[in-house]
Amino acid sequence: MTERTVAVLAGGLSHEREVSLWSGRRLASALRDSGFAVREWDVDGALVERLRSDPPDAVAIALHGGEGENGSVQAVLELLGVPFIGTSAPACRRAWDKPTAKAELARAGLLTPEWVALPHTTFRALGAPAVLAAMVDRLGLPMMLKPDQGGSALGAQVVTESADLPAAMVSCLAYGDAVLAERYVTGTEVAVSVVHDGTEPRALPPVEVDTGDGVYDYTARYTPGAATFHCPARLDTPTLAALEETALAAHHLLGLRDVSRLDAVVDEEGRVQVLEVNVSPGLTETSLLPLAAATAGTDLGRIYGAMVERAIRRG
Hints:
Elements: E1 5-10, H1 17-33, E2 37-42, H2 47-53, E3 58-61, H3 72-80, E4 84-85, H4 89-96, H5 98-107, E5 115-119, H6 120-126, H7 128-139, E6 143-147, E7 157-159, H8 165-173, E8 178-183, E9 187-195, E10 202-203, E11 207-210, H9 218-222, E12 228-230, H10 237-253, E13 259-267, E14 272-278, H11 288-295, H12 300-314
Parallel strand pairs: 1-2, 1-3, 3-4
Antiparallel strand pairs: 5-8, 6-7, 6-8, 9-10, 9-11, 9-13, 11-12, 13-14
Helix pairs in contact: 1-12, 3-4, 6-7
């Protein structure tokens, strides 16, 4: 059989460019080890011409943030008729917007922390002090703030004092035009990756994230040793099963394809509270999908190799 050619897309111009490059290099190496001919392409002005003049058999997307997760790159690939691993453009847009995704999952009966999403114009038009006071009255403190779009926990922070809210809002809005404020839920933070490397999508073993007394922010995600991971998570069997069921349900409800990652908290009552769903999970040395894959007895090359074949058959 002719060797399959895969173009791994990484980089781009988002705030998460460096993380994307790390993911791309690791994915490219794994696919080469599995027998694929791999091209590593940045997402820039030359990409469309490359895809037209030298089309690969399939594209593997290792982009994080911006066009790589909001459906823009996926829409271009669909326009060009290039098979790719991952979710379609419309479903990417739905998952990328955190309030939209949370609303859809909540309507379907999944638990997610109570929230409000407001653009920066609301704070300017109605007066920031009054709006922030209303947020505290409704959601309480501590409160989780994050941009309504984006990944890698950029701009996300926990606020414990009302006096710290204005500065936290400004920091959060540096990464987006609107802020998502959530009721802070204490418990065990867990990530569950879903992959479609066989006949049906399956959930990999849940990974527990332990940051001590800290927050699982950008630094904790990508600094070796800043967080401790346990896979499978140190939870009882029924809770592990509930996490896997919730990840699969969210994957289907949002119309996701091939690969996704659910971020959740198991609260003090043992309930799974969905935080968000990611359509392009990180693949770096400190990322959670590779760890879950290893615990399940497989690796990135086998998982993504199977998804390459799926993408080609779809195309």
